[in-house]
Write a structure and sequence with these properties.
37% helix, globular, Cathepsin B, Chain A, 0% strand, mainly alpha
Length: 109
């Protein structure tokens, strides 16, 4: 949304924490950005105002609130595809960074 329409919107972290566990994400214990993005692609995502973050207070993931999930007016950005560029692929990152949102994480164990 920021790249395409210059609108900065806060989306619901709580929805991702609570509603993507069936995809293999561990709620408050961590997760994978590609799984979260595929969830948003399939179901949409609410604004943080409509589905506020509460896990920081309770330290518990909580159940997915399907009432909030279906009732929110903002369904987030349209995601056409989620692409995993692979490990160590700087070329793909450079090609994507000007035109698309990118997520980068480091596996450091």
């Amino acid at each position: 949304m920021k790249i395409k329409k210059n609108i900065l919107t806060n989306y619901s972290e709580q929805q991702l924490v609570s509603c993507t566990t069936y995809l293999g994400n561990a709620g408050c214990g961590g997760g994978w950005s590609d799984k979260a993005l595929n969830y948003v692609k399939a179901k949409g995502i609410c604004s943080s105002a409509e589905y506020p973050y509460v896990s920081g207070q309770t330290r518990l993931t909580g159940s997915c609130n399907t009432v909030k999930q279906t009732a929110c007016t903002l369904k987030g950005p349209k995601i056409a595809s989620v692409v995993n560029s692979g490990y160590g692929s700087c070329t793909n990152l450079v090609l994507a960074i000007d035109k698309h949102p990118v997520v980068v994480y480091v596996y450091a164990s």
